[in-house]
Design goal:
With about 290 residues, the protein is an alpha/beta fold. It folds into two domains: about 160 residues, 3-Layer(aba) Sandwich (Rossmann fold), CATH 3.40.50.1000; about 110 residues, Hypothetical Protein, Haloacid Dehalogenase-like Hydrolase, Chain: A, domain 2 (2-Layer Sandwich). Helix content is about 30%, strand content about 25%. A hairpin with a 4-residue loop joins strand 6 and strand 7.
Length: about 290
């Protein structure tokens, strides 16, 4: 499909799998090489993730993806190679402080993020810290009082981490207080289950809005975009694009939605552990 000029890619479950040393924490070299070749040919490739840009810096550098990416769930639109922050959506200072204090008071492991760093409370390091460091590939900065000291930073995201599904329900209930003022969702990483990662951002932040930012910033219409994901919530940005694809390991719901785009515009590739993204690129005659 020669009219595809830009690709938006989810990361976990699409280019990163759960086989440590094979495709985790970084994609397999075959995937990196295909991304590099495709981008070099003139196709824009934006990674789309709830992670901060520093957690995907190696992928971006290895594939030389020097264009903007959707990070922090849409809270930060950034090109780390050329050091361009196209969008930065900040959580209200006092609201962030209240959220952090609520987590600390209720023994919820919590981190907050700026564009370039993430922070935890001194003395709260645990096995969760170690597991998340594997994903983020960067050490957290320690603060004496996470809540009090937070007023000195522009916070783009807060992550409460639940230890399992039951704890996830508890944390979800706690956050009902802030439901009208903040966006709140959950994500997982297959390599560190059963941990559940809460994603707290400013109101209006989403991967869908991040994709709109990509289109506006690049001047590429959604008619000329392909988006790829694995989870049902990825439909929020895949829906915008004329072309959509799901991974073989993706949810049944997403596969159904993608195929509803029609034979020419929708496709389901193989599993992430079988380089399913290559199937998708081949189907759309990309690179």
């Amino acid at each position: 499909m020669t009219d595809i000029k830009w690709i938006i890619l989810d990361i976990d479950g699409v280019i990163v799998g759960d086989k440590i040393g094979f495709n985790s924490p970084d994609p397999h070299p075959i995937i990196i090489e295909r991304l590099r070749k495709l981008h070099k040919s003139g196709v824009g490739i934006s990674l789309c993730t709830a992670k901060p840009h520093f957690a995907i810096r190696k992928i971006i550098n290895d594939a030389n993806l020097n264009n903007i990416h959707i990070t922090d769930g849409g809270g930060v639109i950034v090109d780390p190679i050329d050091k361009i922050v196209a969008k930065k959506r900040i959580i209200d200072t006092h609201l962030a402080q209240d959220v952090l204090q609520m987590c600390l008071d209720n023994n919820v492991y919590v981190e907050f993020y700026t564009v370039d760093d993430y922070f935890i409370q001194d003395g709260k390091e645990s096995s969760i810290t170690k597991d998340h460091r594997h994903i983020l590939q960067q050490e957290p900065r320690l603060l004496k009082s996470l809540s009090v000291d937070s007023v000195n930073f522009e916070i783009t995201k807060i992550i409460p981490i639940a230890v399992d599904e039951q704890d996830k329900k508890r944390v979800t209930d706690l956050f009902q207080t802030f439901a009208k003022d903040l966006e709140f969702s959950w994500s997982i990483h297959p390599a560190v289950l059963p941990l559940q990662f809460g994603i707290v951002t400013a109101s209006g932040v989403s991967k869908r809005q991040g994709s709109i930012d990509i289109s506006e910033n690049s001047a590429v219409a959604f008619e000329n975009m392909l988006a790829v994901g694995d989870g049902t919530n990825d439909w929020q940005f895949i829906e915008l694009c004329k072309y959509g694809a799901a991974m073989g390991n993706g949810s049944y719901e997403l596969k159904k939605l993608v195929l509803a785009k029609g034979k020419e515009c929708g496709f389901v590739g193989g599993s992430v552990n079988e380089h399913g993204l290559i199937d998708i690129f081949d189907h759309f005659e990309l690179g």
